[in-house]
Amino acid sequence: MSISVIPRSIVYSVLAVAGIYSLMNLSIIGVIPWREAVQSKFIAAQFIEKLYGTRAASAVTVLVLWTAFASVFALLLGYSRIPYAAAVNGHFFPVFGRLHPTGKFPHVSLLVMGLLSIGAAFWNLETVISALLTSRILVQFIGQIFALRHLRNHRQDIVRPFRMWLYPLPSIAALFGWVYVFVTSGWAFMGFGLLTLTVGVAAYFLWKRGLQA
Length: 213
Fold this sequence. Notes:
The N and C termini lie far apart (45 Å). The radius of gyration is 22 Å and the shape is globular. It has helices spanning 5-29, 34-37, 43-52, 54-79, 81-88, 107-120, 125-154, 169-183, 187-212. Helices cover 74% and strands 0% of the residues. It has 213 residues and is an all-alpha fold. The relative contact order is 0.06. It contains 9 helices and no strands. Among the domains are: 80-122, no CATH class; 124-213, no CATH class.
């Protein structure tokens, strides 16, 4: 398999999703005036109701709720595997590597992720998304930029099949872009992002201390 398959698949997927999303929005505003559509909180049900009536709109609402539940359920199961895999490989707290005695699933990791998700449910969706975004900007997006620099300068021994065109210009542009998004998110979300990073650093040192004990 060519190493260019993954980058091409990402680009094709982004283009396909963008195309589908654009067509969906065009079909909606073809039925519902855009000024009314941007204010709607139940746009899919409202769209179907105008075309096929109330019963069809109710059926679509059930389908949307079921899809949302399936998505959250799958994400919870999937994300619970990340601390578990890290613990099994010796890179996280060992307690997260425990499996349920009968179900053989990472129950400790699943319970922790579930409790965190329940806590997030007490805020509205916009607040949760903004908080998660600012956290990921610091921990993942900006972190990846510096990690790439580190790997390029200090880890010549590992296989690096992908190349960044015009390096380091894309990294610099991405860094400025993410910093701009972070500082314009508001003091509360900036504080949450910094708090998340601080908790992560503290957890790392606790884990490291446990290894040396």
